[in-house]
Inverse folding.
């Protein structure tokens, strides 16, 4: 059997461009200034060192349909936890690449969980900015609503966006401090795709009801 070739970074970026042109992917409204990696640069190395190689903190959060989704239900898959909020310009900028990544690798064991921080960082929006965001970007992966507990468990999310790449065993393999292009995520994810699943759960269990 001839191994299937993995997509290249160039094809990933091309896929992101296609996603951005899909019907329904309207131009996003102007975003308010957002935190950038440089704003807390002095914390960067210590923060990354604190989480890399450690078990990802567990959580159970509500999705947009009110169902409870737990990180443990994805054990055996590679999971990218992407923390973001709706008026964050760098968050918006990387979203098409995340959509493309998921399209390329979902059948090989990757899932992306978008953990939305609006209720903590911009509670005054009352969810309105999130609805505007979702009209702008056809996000196919689960969007979960952050609570204070997960916010604290992941170090208070000092920059936005920030992403944690979790391997099949539930260990944080890499922390992405700030927004990154799809090619950077691609380089980190590809080596994990060949790692064997830890245990029988190769796919997430269906989320429980509200």
């Amino acid at each position: 059997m001839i191994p299937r070739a993995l997509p290249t970074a160039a094809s990933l970026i091309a896929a992101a461009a296609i996603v951005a042109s899909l019907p329904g992917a309207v131009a996003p409204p102007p975003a308010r200034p957002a935190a950038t990696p440089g704003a807390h640069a002095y914390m960067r190395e210590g923060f990354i060192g604190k989480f890399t190689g450690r078990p990802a903190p567990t959580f159970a959060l509500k999705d947009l349909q009110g169902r409870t989704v737990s990180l443990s239900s994805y054990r055996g898959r590679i999971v990218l936890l992407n923390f973001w909020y709706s008026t964050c310009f760098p968050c918006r900028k990387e979203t098409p690449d995340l959509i493309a990544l998921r399209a390329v690798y979902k059948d090989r064991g990757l899932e992306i969980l978008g953990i939305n921080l609006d209720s903590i960082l911009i509670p005054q929006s009352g969810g309105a900015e999130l609805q505007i965001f979702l009209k702008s970007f056809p996000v196919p992966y689960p969007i979960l609503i952050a609570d204070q507990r997960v916010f604290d468990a992941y170090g208070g999310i000092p920059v936005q966006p920030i992403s944690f790449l979790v391997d099949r065993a539930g260990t944080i393999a890499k922390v992405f401090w700030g927004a990154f292009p799809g090619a950077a995520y691609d380089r980190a994810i590809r080596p994990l795709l060949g790692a064997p699943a830890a245990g029988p759960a190769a796919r997430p269990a269906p989320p429980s009801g509200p």
